[in-house]
Each structure stands twice: as C-alpha cells, then as structure tokens.
Amino acid sequence: MKTLLQALRSLLFIVVMYLSMAVIALVYLLPAVLTEDGAFRAIRTYCTFVRWAARVIVGLKSEIRGPVPTGEVIIASKHQSFFDIIMIVSAVPRPKFIMKKQLVHMPIVGFYTRKTGCIAVDRGKRGTAVKKMIADVTSGRARPGQLIIFPQGTRVAAGAHLPYKIGTGVLYRETGQTVIPAATNVGVFWKRHGIMRWPGTAVVEFLPAIEPGLEMSDFMARLEEVVEAQSNRLMSEAGFEAAALGQD
C-alpha cells in the first residue's frame, strides 16, 4: 500500500513539474525575450519550485553543500537524474550546459537553453563534438557564467560506473579555467527511468576546486577519484547499500 501511495504521489509530482514548466515559461516569456537576466530568472524560479514541490508532494528534500561557484568556472558534476540538474541550476547564478544538440529543438527547453548560452554538441561525432565544444567555449562568443559538464557524458544509475570522457580534460587544458567537481546521491531517490520518486534527502555537493596547471592525465584521475569517492559517500549516507532504491 505504501508503495502504491508513493507511486501516486510520484505521478502527481511529475504532472505538476511539467505543467509548472509551461506556466513559468509563459509568465517569464517577455522578460526572457528581452534580456538574458529574464531567462535566468525564469529558470531559477522553475528549479526552485520543483525542489519545493518534490519536498511537499513526494517527501524528497534537497540540499546544496559546499561553496556555490559564482565565477568563470567549469562545474564537472556526477549526473544521476534530472534532479541534479534542477539542484545545480537553482544554486549557481549563471548556469550554462554542454548538452546534446537534440535538446535545442525541444519546445520551451530549446528557447531557454539558447537564451542562456548553452553549448550544443553532437555526441555521435565525438572528435567533431570536442572540437566544436572547445571552439564555442574559447571563441569569445560564449557568454560568461558557470559551464556545467557531465564527465561521464550521460546519466549514470546509483552504484553503476561509466568511464570519464576526455572532453572535460580538454576543456580544462584549453580554457585554463578552474574546475569545480560536484558529487551527488540523487539517483538513490530519483532514478534515470520510471516514475518513482522516493522520500529522503538528495544532496549535490560542490567539492574543492581543481586549479589550472595539471597534466591532463593527472587532472582526469583526480577528478574521477574525488567525484566518485564523494558520490559514494553521499549515497552511503542516504542508506543506498541497504535500500538499493537506485538499482536499474
């Protein structure tokens, strides 16, 4: 019975989440058309509302730990579900993503990603994608802000492991920017697929900065070590081993 009730709450939450996206996008449409700041306000309003709705409807609290990045940095984050995106965007002042190009053509999402300077790449053409990514970031046309990249390239289920792709290392080397690793446990409560949203406390933690100057291999090893170790710690803190809610 408890599982059925949670499924019904989860379904209600999903409906509310997508309806609110449309409503907030329309409310902020004119400010977003006129200025980038209007677009960022719309996105932050939506993400803050989704965090509130998750807590109220399905009992999923959310917590940001560590100093929130505010300058010209690269955020290299573990990615387990849509909720870690929601949490990061609600926290940082000017988020922009490296994302798959298909999202640019989605209603609402595409408009706001273009307005906020997100960088679209074709993940199916890896070499070309990396070159385009570097060109867009270093060209001077790229807007200032916090560039968010998922080093594994996709959502990864809690407890699963995928290798880290070299694109983050190339960005680190070519831009000379500081990288802020970010760990999360959100996949314990909100899986990659399915409707279930479980109660608990989802955490995104910004970790100590990796300053420019490391060799790429050293950088990649350090990034993977800290993100995986801290994500595992957060999942353990959430009782992942016992509950196994994040298994796909």
The amount of helix comes to: 40-55%
Q: Give the low-pLDDT segments.
A: 242-248
Strand content: 5-15%
Question: What is the typical, i.e. mean, pLDDT?
Answer: 87
- Kindly give the count of domains: 1
As laid out across the biggest beta sheet, the strand order is 1-7-6-2-5-3-4
The helix-strand sequence is: HHHEEHEHEHEHEEHH
CATH superfamily: Glycerol-3-phosphate (1)-acyltransferase
CATH class: Alpha Beta
Total number of helical segments? 9
Output the structural class: alpha/beta
CATH architecture: 3-Layer(aba) Sandwich
Query: Please, what is the oligomeric state?
Result: single chain
Report the major sheet: 7 strands, mixed
Any idea of the CATH topology? Glycerol-3-phosphate (1)-acyltransferase
In whole angstroms, the N-to-C terminal distance is: 22 Å
Secondary-structure topology with pairs:
Elements: H1 2-27, H2 29-34, H3 36-58, E1 60-65, E2 74-77, H4 82-91, E3 95-100, H5 109-115, E4 119-121, H6 126-138, E5 146-149, H7 167-175, E6 179-184, E7 200-206, H8 216-237, H9 240-243
Parallel strand pairs: 1-7, 2-5, 2-6, 3-4, 3-5
Antiparallel strand pairs: 6-7
Helix pairs in contact: 1-3, 3-4, 6-7, 7-8
